């Protein structure tokens, strides 16, 4: 592939900007989505990921804890939530959550996320975070999405800033990127009408960054949205990042259609769409350092391919995952360190073990 081939596709100006490290416009992002040859955005994205990370691919030794699946919201894509009293509904005590963590052995990151419970208040989560911090003094604690933070503020009758400050005081380092879904109002109203809107999600993140917490950002794709909606989502994130700088990693999540009502209308993105979206994300999000190929939802093989399309992180050992698996993810529940490292090496990259904030973790 040479410059004349890229020029024949009308993408030479985009190539020049990518090589110069200049910001791509929405129109240029659209041109990358519309380019008939998937390998053109891929090569550009690979150039950027190499500039940022060399041949390094990150992974994390982590454990997910889902404190409750009881949720007042009814997102149409969710297979995880339950009503209070419904079969399978649960709330873990802090001790039960700790027990699950202990069973996983040493971890560098604890990922805490769950439903918006109608009554569980800030005290429960503060206590949980403090106990996790005491048991794992060095691990990163990544806890509660912007949606859960907003919900907790309402349930506990305190400000969002107070929720954030108290969680930080209890040991939380960062927020996971969930709940962003797709910011565009049209699809968002159909997908998750009870959830806070895109602006509110971004505003919670801005407050988190101001409070000294870092965070990730997700985008759920392959359902009712268009590629323009995806580009708007990415643009909103990069504008937020210009202002507050706290996003560490972007995670494009492929919609999984199992066991949820939306599955009657949408089937999730194709593998080609996943790969292209990784590349476009790497190219558009010039100010977010990391792009994650979340193997739990993508499958390990497609995640490995994503590494050549702009992603530099595979996420982690995980141990137990409910949100994707209840929605039909066919992947296993956990990967070992040797399995993750081998997956990275056999894709042509060098594995780097990290913590939640992407600081190198020692064995
Ligand atoms: O916000 C729910 C998604 C998210 C489905 O920050 C679904 O490092 C696909 O955000 N198909 C929660 N996705 C998970 C999440 C996450 C995961 C891993 C790492 C990080 C991180 C964040 O899961 C929700 C929603 O977008 N989700 N249902 C589904 N059917
Ligand atoms: Fe509740 Fe989250 Fe499921 Fe929405 S995606 S219903 S907020 S658990």
Structure description:
This protein is an alpha/beta fold and 363 residues long. It has a single domain (55-354), classed as Aldolase class I (TIM Barrel), CATH 3.20.20. 44% of the residues lie in helices and 13% in strands. The chain is built from 16 helices and ten strands. It has helices spanning 3-8, 12-20, 26-34, 39-53, 94-103, 122-135, 146-156, 160-170, 185-191, 198-210, 227-244, 271-284, 295-298, 300-306, 323-326, 337-345, and strands spanning 56-60, 62-65, 109-112, 140-143, 174-175, 214-221, 247-254, 290-291, 313-316, 350-354. The strands form three sheets. It has a four-stranded parallel beta sheet. α4 packs across α12 (271-284) and α7 (146-156) crosses α10 (198-210). The longest helix has 18 residues, at 227-244. The chain is globular. Bound molecules: ligand V47 and iron/sulfur cluster. Ligand V47 is lined by residues 77-79, 176-179, 181, 216, 218, 220, 251, 253, 255-256, 260, 294, 297, 315, 323-324, 327.
């Amino acid at each position: 592939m040479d410059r004349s081939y890229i020029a024949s596709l009308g993408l030479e100006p985009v190539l020049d900007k990518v090589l110069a490290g200049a910001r791509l416009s929405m129109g240029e992002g659209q041109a990358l989505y519309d380019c008939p040859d998937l390998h053109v955005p891929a090569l550009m994205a690979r150039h950027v990921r190499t500039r940022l990370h060399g041949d390094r691919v990150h992974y994390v030794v982590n454990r997910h804890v889902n404190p409750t699946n009881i949720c007042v919201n009814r997102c149409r894509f969710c297979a995880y939530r339950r009503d209070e009293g419904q079969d399978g509904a649960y709330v873990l005590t802090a001790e039960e959550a700790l027990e699950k963590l202990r069973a996983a052995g040493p971890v560098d990151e604890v990922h805490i996320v769950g439903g918006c419970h109608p009554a569980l208040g800030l005290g429960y989560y503060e206590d949980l975070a403090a106990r996790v911090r005491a048991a794992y003094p060095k691990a990163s604690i990544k806890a509660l999405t912007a949606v859960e933070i907003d919900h907790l503020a309402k349930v506990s009758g305190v400000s969002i800033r107070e929720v954030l400050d108290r969680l930080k005081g209890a040991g939380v380092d960062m927020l996971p990127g969930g709940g962003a879904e797709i910011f565009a109002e049209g699809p968002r109203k159909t997908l998750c009408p009870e959830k806070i809107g895109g602006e509110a999600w971004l505003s919670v993140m801005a407050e988190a960054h101001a409070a000294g917490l870092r965070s990730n950002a997700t985008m759920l794709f392959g359902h009712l949205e268009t590629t323009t909606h995806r580009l708007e989502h990415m643009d909103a994130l990069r504008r937020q990042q210009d202002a507050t700088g706290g996003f560490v990693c972007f995670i494009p999540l492929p919609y999984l259609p199992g066991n949820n009502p939306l599955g009657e209308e949408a089937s999730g993105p194709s593998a080609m769409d996943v790969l292209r979206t990784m590349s476009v994300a790497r190219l558009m999000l010039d100010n977010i350092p990391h792009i994650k190929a979340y193997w739990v939802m993508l499958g390990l093989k497609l995640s490995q391919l994503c590494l050549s399309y702009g992603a530099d992180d595979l996420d982690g050992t995980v141990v137990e995952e409910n949100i994707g698996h209840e929605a039909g993810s066919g992947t296993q529940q956990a990967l070992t360190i040797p399995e993750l490292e081998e997956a990275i090496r056999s894709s042509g990259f060098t594995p780097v073990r990290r913590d939640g904030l992407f600081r190198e973790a020692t064995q």
